[in-house]
Amino acid sequence: MLKDLLEGKPLRHPIHPMLVHFPIGLFILSFILDLVGLAPSPRPFLVSAAFYAMLLGVITALLAAIPGFVDYTDIRRDHPGKTTATGHMVLNLLAVALYAINLWLRILALNNSKVGLTPLILSFVGIGLLSASGYLGGRLVYDEGIAVGRHKRRTPAPQETIELPRTKSGFVPVPQAEQLRDQETFRAEIDGCVLTIVRIGKALFAFQEFCTHRFGPLSEGAFDGFNVQCPWHNSCFDVRTGKVTNGPAKVNLKTFKMEMRDGKVGVLMTRNHDQKT
């Protein structure tokens, strides 16, 4: 499948982070060549070299943007990193547009002995945009966990979070839970609380969606018996009690009781177990 290829699943590593090094390096190289070309002794070949480095940078940036956009579309709409990812994408597009304008200005002056002031300023601004975009890209990986661990996912994962209305009694019917297969998960948001429901054997279990270590999505984790393994850093929890069975997590999960009332399967939105250090 093309999407799987662009996400790097056959390589078990995302494609976008591998490709972005090329445009960043080429754009920085172009800027360095511009600065060297400002030396008292004119070196006309540096003007052409900076131009072609920038041209290759734009081409590789467009290539890197393809798997990057695929990764962006794969971010859950309820994920806190979605806003950061949008900012990252907008800054990258602005940078590429700026460099495209820069190329247009430079192509008319390839025979000059030194780069013009306007192209030089645009290159400086472009480096600034790349730096800001790179900072947001780092936040996406290290703070938000985007693209972390998804290539070792072994169980079917829900594609969206379903919002369910909270009731006065606290019992919320979840008809979709009855359709779950063994070790398949369902993700729901009830009154601002995001939780995961999983079937293990004949029993259903509900627990908080986000890992207590670095907020990894447990609905996308792997299951071994009654243990769920976080797809980011491999913390494990017992879905029956929420207790940590393997670190680095130290805080237990919140769990919720699944019940059958009036022929309907649902979750009781009263915590079954509190977090403990």
Describe this structure in words.
With 277 residues, the chain is an alpha+beta fold. It folds into two domains: 149 residues; 119 residues, Rieske Iron-sulfur Protein (3-layer Sandwich). The protein has six helices and eleven strands. It has a seven-stranded mixed β-sheet, with no helix packed on it. Strand 10 and strand 11 form a beta hairpin. Helix 3 runs antiparallel to helix 6 and helix 4 packs antiparallel against helix 5. The radius of gyration is 25 Å and the shape is elongated. The protein starts with a helix and ends with a strand. The model has no long low-confidence stretch (mean pLDDT 85).
Poorly predicted ranges: none
Mean pLDDT: 85
Which structural class is indicated by helix and strand composition?
alpha+beta
Compute the number of structural domains.
Answer: 2
β-sheet strand percentage: 15-25%
Number of helices: 6
| Beta-strand segment tally | 11
Task: Give the strand line-up of the largest sheet.
Answer: 1-3-4-5-10-11-2
Radius of gyration, whole Å: 25 Å
The backbone outline, from C-alpha atoms, is elongated
Order of helices and strands: HHHHHHEEEEEEEEEEE
CA-to-CA gap between the ends? 43 Å
Largest sheet: 7 strands, mixed
Helix content: 25-40%
Name a few traits of the molecule.
277 residues; alpha+beta; Rieske Iron-sulfur Protein; four-stranded antiparallel sheet; 20% strand; elongated
List the helices and strands and how they pair.
Layout (H helix, E strand, L loop, with lengths): L1 H6 L8 H4 L1 H17 L6 H30 L7 H27 L9 H26 L19 E3 L6 E3 L11 E6 L2 E8 L2 E6 L13 E3 L2 E3 L6 E3 L5 E3 L8 E7 L2 E10 L4
Parallel strand pairs: 1-3
Antiparallel strand pairs: 2-11, 3-4, 4-5, 5-10, 6-7, 7-8, 8-9, 10-11
